[in-house]
Design a protein that fits this description.
The chain has 279 residues and is mainly alpha-helical. Among the domains are: 96 residues, no CATH class; 57 residues. The protein contains 9 helices and no strands.
Length: 279
């Protein structure tokens, strides 16, 4: 939005008195045209790639176009265009409608209302809490915008109202300012709390995942150790059986140890049981 406002200001003071001013003005117009063209082409591009939006390959290359958006919904193809169009129009309003503040506030209310309808109806975000958070933000911005009407004096058709036509109640304006700042403070506080909760939840999840990986690694190491021990005892017992010493105390001890091994396969347990029955 900052870039848009800068280029709008250059267009507002458009001048070709020197080569430098002509290049600067032309660059500003070209930059805005590129922004507008890009915003118009994004829905076309996402529509052409509609079957690949959920694939990791697409997310790796063009993930910024669908980041945190539900790619299964058609409406998200126009999200970036609406996002860019809103900021370009607001930038133009700030630069070119400075003499009509009432019209500026009306347009801000209109865009906030349209954004509320879009988010509330289409639910474009992946997580429900993000849809609720964006709805809350837009609602508070819309409510805070109503306070700005008290600073415009309702001069919709008056160009540059004189000081005699302006409101003189400074105490009322001060109280309105406190109310406006309080609403904006609520947005900041709520978003900071949500960010904190999300970050803490992510940290807790990573800690749990680390503990699970560590426990799994430890269990696998114990399993491999027991398996190697069972295989060693089975080979030793098999050697004794092959040598005809399956009835002595050493073979019986090995047989008992093998039967107590928790990771011994069922086939080996049956073999040892058969040998024990024969003995």
């Amino acid at each position: 939005m900052e870039v848009s406002i800068k280029n709008m200001i250059k267009m507002y003071i458009l001048s070709n008195q020197s080569t430098y001013e002509w290049i600067d003005s032309t660059t500003a117009i070209g930059t805005l045209c590129v922004f507008i063209l890009f915003a118009l082409l994004v829905p076309v591009f996402l529509t052409c790639k509609r079957n690949e939006l959920s694939k990791p390959e697409f997310a790796a290359k063009y993930g910024s176009l669908t980041e945190q958006l539900n790619t299964k919904k058609v409406s998200i193809r126009f999200y970036y265009s609406l996002f860019a169009a809103r900021r370009i129009i607001l930038s133009a309003m700030i630069v070119f409608l400075t003499q009509w503040p009432f019209a500026q506030v009306q347009l801000i209310c209109l865009f906030c209302t349209f954004q509320l309808i879009y988010i509330g109806y289409f639910q474009p975000y992946t997580f429900n809490w993000m849809n609720w958070l964006e709805t809350f933000n837009e609602y508070i911005i819309l409510a805070s915008t109503y306070f700005l009407f008290l600073y415009t004096d309702g001069m919709l058709l008056v160009k540059l109202p004189t000081s005699a036509e302006q409101v003189k109640d400074q105490e009322m304006l001060t109280n309105v300012g406190y109310g406006h700042a309080s609403l904006l403070g609520i947005i900041v506080a709520v978003n900071m709390v949500v960010m904190l909760v999300v970050q803490v939840s992510a940290i807790i999840r990573k800690i749990k995942l680390f503990c699970l990986k560590r426990a799994h690694k430890k269990a696998m190491a114990e399993y491999i150790k027991r398996k190697q021990l069972a295989e060693a005892l089975h080979r030793e017992f098999k050697d004794l059986v092959d040598d005809g010493q399956d009835n002595n105390s050493q073979s019986r001890d090995l047989q008992a140890k093998l039967l107590r091994m928790p990771n011994l396969s069922q086939n080996r347990r049956r073999q040892l049981a058969q040998i024990q029955d024969q003995s």
